[in-house]
Structure formats: structure tokens, C-alpha cells
């Protein structure tokens, strides 16, 4: 694998750390600013919405410059946002710092996916994308627990300062290792938007929203589920999340390896498996050992869908993949927000802390149905294209 992929992975590690570490530091941040926990929760919501808006916005702006230069600018924005978060004297400024940081998130992964895929041969593209996303998964195993520990021991501002420093390392890595890639000919907004006329691009994004949404329906409420249902202590939740991160790491590698060989069968297996495991989680959540195993499986099956879904979008939006790739990263965050909201509704309705698992299972099953629909549509299109050359000579014979 080219060294440039590791530079992208370092950037992904920083982004993954800053996105998820906030959840472990909310009480400290709320206490420092004198706001309630729900108000501090706006730092999570604001970030997710920033990714959703920033992914297409920053990518559109990026059509004016080369992809390498845009990746460097995005890492620069990431550093500025985290420094602002670390130094913010008031809560509104802290929220502003989070939103500035989030604007870099979607476009970095979107453009980074295109660059990663362009660095390798056609049969290794999903593997290259997975290598970049390894940074995000490792962030959940190492960066988030370490950042939470540092934040609780020394102060949360130190955590964001360290993440900003990590962004500087990522920026220099991209500058040094990513080859100069000229702006693609005809990289115009109209051409990039044209990719969304392809039904397969829309279907792939729908799979992203529903499939990954299935994961976060369960994981968003993992703390109350594990402490109230499984009987774990509050302190054990951190290690359960590390276990989830290990699952993400393994699933990402698996998805990258097999998506290049058999993309759609990989999606059938992972989405179907995810639906079954999430449904079983309503039962396994009552046993400590089974709950831990299930969390690992949810992480693995959920993240095994990421490289194939991202590659599916790149394949279907060929010729103008940059905006579609970035919007698909926004779709992951839309799935997170949608499933967290639906999970909250079923808990509020008194259905218990395991109820979000049913929500997740239904979302994953819906994504599986869309995967079958997408494959059927593709077969129909190929059959029509195969028939077209046969029809053409007949018509020419009639004319003569």
C-alpha cells in the first residue's frame, strides 16, 4: 500500500478522536461552562449537522483546487477548529469550534476516499479506502479512551490541544506523502451534481443511512443498556466501547478485503448479519458475556459495510465521484442522527433500554432490501445494454 494512505489514515485518526471523545468529556465541559448536560449535548448534535452540511459545501468549494491542496486546507481547518475548542472562553465559542471542525470531516473522508482509490490498481480500491478508514476505527480503540483519560485527569482543553497537534502531523503527512493530483478535467459543479441522477448512487446512500443507522440505534444507548440491563458498572462502559472499536477495526479490514472481490454479496452478508445480531441483542443484553460478544459483532458487521458502500458510490458516480463520495459520508452521520432520535423515542415510550436494538434491526433489514433492489436494477440495466447492440444491426438491415 502507498505511504500516502497512512498520511490519510493519520488525518482520519484525528477526526475520529475529536468526533467521539466529546461523549466521554461532556460532564467536565458542562461543569466548566456552567451549562446542563443536555445543553452540552449540542456539541454532539452541532458536530453531526456540521458534517451533514459541510460535506457537500466544502467539496463544492474544493472543485476549484487540486484534491491534495483541498485535503491540506481541510486539515488546516480541522486544526483551527480544535484550537478554538481548546481555548474557547465561553460555551457558544466552544460550539463554534466544534462546528468549524465538523466542516472538515465529511469532505476529508469524501475527497480522501477518491484519492485513496486513485492511488492503487482497480482491484484494490476498496482495500485502499479501508486503509484510510482504519484511522477512524483505531481512534475508537486508542484515541477516544486515551483522550477521555487525559481530559478527566488533566483537563478537557488539553485533549483538544493534543488533537489539534495530531491534525498538524496529518497536514504535514499529506503535504509530504500524497502525490500532486491535478484537478480532474471538467470538475465542475454541474457535472458533480449529475451523479445524483443515477438511481444507484441514491440507493447506495440509502443503504448507508439505514445500514449504519442500525448500528448507532443500539450504540447510542449502550451506557444505560449495559448498566441497567446487563449489570455492568459505569466504569466498564469505556471498555465495552473499546471492544466496539475493535469490532469496527476488524470489520473495516474484512469489508475492504472482500468488497474488491464480491461487493454486493459482501453487503448481503453484512447487512443481513447485522439485522440478525441486532435483533438477538434484545436477548443477549441480559447477559454480561453475551452482551460483550454482541457489541463486538455489531461493530464488526456495521463497519464491514463502510468500504463496500463507499466504493459502490465511487463506482456508480464514475466521472464525477468527489461530491457523491463526500455526501455519502454525510449520509453516515444522517443515519447516526436518525437512529439516535428513533432509539430515544422507543425508550421514551417506555419500551425499555433494549428497544433501540429492534429499531436497529429493522433499519439494517431495510438496507438489505435496498441492496437486493439495487442488484436487481443493475441486472435489468445490463440486460438492456446487452440487448441494444443486437437490435442496432437489425434496424440498419431494414434501412438497406
From TrEMBL:
It is found in: Cell membrane. Keywords: Cell membrane, Membrane, Transmembrane, Transmembrane helix. The chain crosses the membrane at residues 38-58, 70-91, 103-121, 133-154, 160-180, 201-224, 236-255, 262-283, 289-309, 321-346, 358-377. It is a multi-pass membrane protein. Its main location: membrane. Residues 4-382 form the Major facilitator superfamily (MFS) profile domain. The lineage of its organism: Bacteria, Bacillati, Actinomycetota, Actinomycetes, Kitasatosporales. This is MFS transporter. PANTHER family: CHLORAMPHENICOL EFFLUX PUMP RV0191, PURINE EFFLUX PUMP PBUE. InterPro entries: MFS, MFS_dom, MFS_Efflux_Transporters, MFS_trans_sf. It comes from the Bacteria. The keyword Cell membrane applies. PROSITE patterns: MFS.
